[in-house]
Structure formats: C-alpha cells, structure tokens
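Anyone opening a protein record will find just a pair of labelled lines. With that in mind, the following record should read easily:
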Amino acid sequence: MINTSENIAMKDLRSGFGEGLVAAGRKNPNVVALTADVTGSVKMDGFAKAFPERFVQCGIAEANMTGIAAGMSLNGKTPFIGGFAEFVTGRIYDQIRQVVAYSNKNVKICGSHAGITLGEDGATHQTMEDIGLMKALPNMTVLVPCDANQTHNATIAAAEHNGPVYLRFGRPKMPNFTDINEPFIIGKAQILNQGSDVSIIATGHLVWEALVAAQALEKEGIRADVINIHTIKPLDCETIIASAHKTGAVVTAEEHSLINGLGDSVAHVLALNCPTPMRMVAMEDRFGESGTPMQLMEHFGLKSKNIIGQVHNVLKMK
C-alpha cells in the first residue's frame, strides 16, 4: 500500500488536466479546446499558448460553447470544453443531452472546481449532483480521477476515446500519489491495497482519504481492499463483485451527494449480483457552504475518520 505517512507532493488536479490537454494536443492535431471565460481557472491557458489557432474563448455562454463543440466534432475535431463543473453540467444539461449525448458526439466535457472542495465560492458554485446527472445520460462516459497525475492521464485517455466524456476534477492542491507512467484504462478500476475484511471503494479526492483510513485500520488488525473507481461509467462491476465476495463488507467514499453517485452505482451492482452489507461516506442531501476545502471536508464528514467509522459500522453487519 502507498505509505500515506510519507511526505507526498501536493498538486491540484486542474493542473494535471491542463498539462494532459497540452499533451493530448501534441499527439492529435484534431484536439481543440473551448472555454467559457475561465481559461486560467481551469488551466487551459497552456493549451491556448501552445495552440492558439485551436483554442476558442466563448465567453460566459456555456450552452453556446457546447453547440460549437458539437459542430466541430462533426468536422473531425475532438473538442474539449472546460468550465466550473456546476456550469458545464447543471446550467446546460439540456444542451448536453440533446446535442452531445443523444447523437453520440465526440465532445469532452471537463468540469473543474467540482465537489465541496471548490471552497469559499459557496453553494451556488459547488456541485454535488454532477456525477448523477452525467452518468444518467446514454452514451456518456464519466471519469473521476483521484490526483493530478491520474487527471493528466485521464485527459489523454478521454482524447483517445470515441464518444462523449465527462471528466470531473477539483480545484485545491491534494496529495499526488499515483504513478504518472501507469496507463489510464477507461472502465478498469485500480486496486491500491489488498485486504480480506472490508472493501473501501472510493473515487476522486476520497481515494487518498481511503488510503489513510486503510493504513489506520491495519493497526487495528482490519485489512481493507482499497479500490480506486476512476471510471464511474462504465463501471468495473467485475472488480467490485470480486472484492465484495472476498470481504463480505463494503464502504464507498466520494465527494458527491449520496444520492445517485458512486455509492448508488455500487449498491446497484451488489443488489443484483451479490447482496453485501454496505455503508456510504458522501455528502448528505443538502447544499454546501463557504469555507476552505479542508474545513468543508471536515464539516461534511468526508475525511478518513468518517470512512473508519463506517467500516466499524459495516463490520458489525457481517
């Protein structure tokens, strides 16, 4: 298991996205980028500088940006549209449904500043519903990488994938612990630790918290599978089922609403294939608040101690 007590470098996931987008642009001259007046905030400035003729600033007009991207895809381009996750999903959901998902356009929707860790901008800018919105759309692939390196690789993988993609990532600096050289395989979960007592299945920023929790649990004699679900859709059902069969107890962890997120997806798989005692660590059914990212994760119960608490709860159900 990754030693979470070591001094792990910190890096924001949006920077991983920006670097990955430039790398994807170098590999494929058909990659283009569009943003809605937030070039620097979503780290698309590197692409704009490297490929100014392939970059479009659309202004604060996310729906128009989506339509432009869909049109570009009809002419062989691979467009990436970038903005705050709340505004490139919730604000323009109908546009995404009708002109991207319904006709299976090769458009990559990139939601930065996702989840509660957007921080001080507060509830109007924080989105805890976007995974649910996007995974419900036919043809849509949903990627939620766990750190900057994986976001870099997920961006390249999205460019190589034929079809609509929603790529979700955060704003703050977080531990950057995955190997930049590890291939990102859409639809294939990562097993980060092997255990036999409980399966901790996490996504996004909560993967690190899951690893911290697993290391603490090991001192109690509780051995945990830790699984990084970086692809919410298509979900790696095989890995989830195999782990649940082995451990007989599951805890999911995500920086998203407990309604229609990773936890709901895992519960659906387990209910149909191997009913297993399960608990979820996620945002309760409420809006966010203003605060620093770490204050908000603590306040809303999205830390390793909350995962440990739910592990103890689910083990009583075995």
